[in-house]
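Predict the holo structure. Ligand: aspartic acid.
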Amino acid sequence: MSTNYEATSLRDSLCASVSVAHVGQRLAVCGWVAKRREHGEHLAFIDIRDRSGVIQAVVDGTVDVRNEYVVRVTGTVSRRPEGTVNDKLTTGEVELTECMVEILATAEAPPFQLDDRVDIDEQVRLRHRYLDLRREQMQKNLRLRAKVNAALRAAMDRQGFCEVETPLLWAPTPEGSREFVVPSRLHHGEFYVLPQSPQIAKQLLMVGGFDRYYQIARCMRDEDLRADRQFEFTQLDLEASFVSQIDILEFVSQAVLDAAEVATGERPSTIDTMTWAEAMNRYGVDKPDLRFGMTLQDLSDVFVGTEVKAFSAPTIKAMRVPQGAEFTRSRLDALTDRAKGLGAKGLAWFRITADGVDSPLDRFLSDHERDAIRRVDDAQPGDLVLIVADDYLLACKVLGALRVELGSPPVSQGPHRYVWVTEFPMYEGLDDDGNPVAAHHPFTMPHPDDIELMATDPLAVRSQAYDLVLNGWELGSGSVRIHRADIQSQVFATLGITPEEAENRFGFLLGAFKYGAPPHAGFAFGIDRLVAIFAGEENIREVIAFPKTQSGADLMTGAPKSIPDKQLKELHLKPVKGA
Ligand code: ASP
């Protein structure tokens, strides 16, 4: 045996480590019976499976084992007879012969075939997740995740970051999502909150002199679940002092590139950067998928003074859909409805033909306009050009959404294209009271060139917030934080947060800042999403050991569940009838 972390007092080797190098040796392996085939009355072939893979054991005589029995098999490593080598198995050239089989535990017939992924209903898988986890794919995914975590930790340690654990029972945090609350037994009628992120704790660590903090942190948000969102998720969370944006981008890039290298075997050369304004202009989204083209083109200048009534709008944005000319009329109608659903007044389409365009709007076009449409993104006959005429940002967003829906390759399709998106707007729209809403969180530092605009045109203020995006998925966000009381008060004022409210919600942080807050900045990115992309999985549930379903249920434990009256009483809780 080469390394021997595999050997224990019960076994000599993992199943898949047995190879021709061991021929002639007597070895013990342990695992589950994956398959059993009788060969006449006196010979049985049993596949033994453990976390590494499978080895075949040839058993003389009868042995009463069934699938999923837990066994220890001691046998002699032998070459398989000619003609029976199995190329699909790493152990396909060998088998264990003259076997002694000990049954360590019996098992009932499993509710689904553990070798076959394709046809198993996910509900059944989740109800018996412990069995599902035995399958090769889940073993691979969770081991990949462990490798990624190890690489991230190593990268952070190497860059001088200190791992600090922060509390799970905490006070409200400023991310603005709905929070999970935990009733206090000792404090009648009061509640803890499960942290949406360690945001405030990590900023306090900077005041506490830690200088570089990180944590593989669990975050909890009571928001609707989606393919890329669970109630609880894991972030690589970090914060550093005496830094600016560029330093954080570099720390995070190092960690992500290291993780990519261990996960894929290749280190991406760099991570591109683009501003939020550029991302919206070219891709119509703040998380651009750079794996494919179909970038948005601006035809506003071409259509100044046009005869096409539908195009008398401030912005005319166009997008080429390769081979889209073959879309049926009903598909084009459905696309138009979709665009309207997204807020556009309409969607114009133009099939590119060998000598012109095919579209109901063709007869209104000038030669110059038709020419411009035919040249969009180097369009060729057989392509389709879609146009949205509207306010600038709306036109970008509508085509951006259609671009993703029409063009996104599956998650499993490479390459991995990372991009930093910087200079996010400080505020996104207005709330019901007419106050701007913080796009990131209220401790984000405005762009230094835009501080003046805070009073006059808050929606035009850029922030020092940045996102990391991979193949159209937002991996994470961060920002340079406000460490100066004057700027912080100004931001609170713009957000409509009164000094009393600020004191009430974040008093302990603002109080701490009075004792010397270093300039600091940070970031957090979702490990579930990163690993899902590395594993080529569309849903993050596939890289989480015990996930919740779309409706927030844990099918295995039955959570959430009611609790006994005695426990409710202790917590000073009373269920409301009919609620
Ligand atoms: N706490 C933020 C988040 O979870 C990340 C950060 O600003 O560091 O999105």
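The CA atoms of residues 344 and 394 lie 7 Å apart. The chain has a mean pLDDT of 94.
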